[in-house]
Design a protein that fits this description.
The chain is of the alpha+beta class. It is built from 7 helices and 18 strands. It is elongated and about 65 Å long. The N terminus is likely disordered.
Length: about 290
């Protein structure tokens, strides 16, 4: 095990513009990182500074905080379930490159200079944003959805989920080429992002399909937002070489807890409702309706 760094050397490093960072090394959140500018709580709590989606992690599992010119990690479980470099700890001073283990998730404590900080920003942008539309990436959206469902369950509130599919992209591709089809996807995605920015979180799920997460509202409010999206896309002037393209959207809506309590379950049910709209001709909104044989 490496020797602990002298706290004074940590302080000196920070004085040269270095800043402490926690980087996730394993699991579905690999690559996620947070800059430690104040004490940070790690745990399953959606309101934790670093929420870890891992059933082996406690609600408030550990904290990282400044102390004596350096940074310490403190176990919050009361059962020494936090490890540093393979050793169970109650509290320990951290050194550069130490590995902190909570549940099955490995984090690394690092000191980053200005160049590394710029790299961090670029990495975060790359893993959280879709290049074509600027919306959240699917990976970031899945994490956001899991977090919001957990928070909704904790606070006994609802949320709505929209799955939006562009009608007629294949026809655009066949007539004008895939570059124009990609432009249509980009324009519709940016329009959705602007429209819901104050109330919801939008992502590109893949291809010409988008997801919109609307926290703290029920099914009726989700359908109302979906109608606003549908109308805005239908009214938008999306053109190619002066020709207005016929672009509309089909939208399915599900809600928590009415239609399920798991992210994939809610996505599938909103997707099922959207495909009913597509089957019936598109350019409409439909809430999920359970099948009753």
């Amino acid at each position: 095990m490496p020797e602990a760094m002298d706290p004074s050397s940590l302080l000196a490093g920070l004085g040269r513009g270095e800043k402490p960072v926690l980087v996730v090394l394993t699991g579905p959140q690999v690559g996620q990182r947070i800059l430690l500018e104040a004490p940070a709580v790690i745990g399953q709590d959606p309101e934790a500074d670093l929420m870890i989606v891992d059933d082996r992690v406690e609600w408030h599992h550990a904290s990282v905080m400044p102390k004596d010119g350096g940074w310490i990690v403190r176990d919050l479980t009361g059962k020494r379930q936090t490890e540093v470099n393979g050793m169970r700890i109650s509290e320990m001073m951290l050194s550069d490159d130490d590995q902190v283990i909570v549940g099955g998730t490995v984090l690394r404590f690092e000191l980053h200079g200005p160049v590394e900080q710029a790299f961090d920003e670029a990495i975060v942008e790359r893993i959280t944003r879709d290049d074509l539309t600027g919306l959240l990436s699917r990976r970031a959206f899945d994490f956001e959805l899991a977090s919001e469902i957990s928070a909704a369950a904790r606070h006994d509130r609802a949320l709505a989920l929209l799955v939006v599919d562009i009608d007629g992209v294949k026809a655009v591709n066949d007539r004008h080429g895939h570059m124009v089809g990609a432009s249509v996807i980009a324009q519709v995605g940016r329009l959705i992002g602007r429209l819901v920015a104050d109330d919801a979180v939008a992502c590109r799920l893949g291809g010409d399909e988008f997801g919109v997460l609307v926290p703290a509202v029920g099914l009726q409010a989700g359908v109302a937002m979906a109608e606003r999206v549908r109308a805005a896309v239908g009214e938008a002037r999306i053109e190619h070489e002066g020709e207005r393209l016929d672009v509309t959207v089909s939208i399915g809506v599900s809600s928590f807890p009415e239609h399920g309590g798991e992210p994939l379950q809610l996505l599938r049910r909103a997707d099922d409702a959207m495909y009913v709209v597509k089957r019936d001709g598109g350019n409409a909104v439909r809430p999920y309706v359970p099948f009753n044989p």
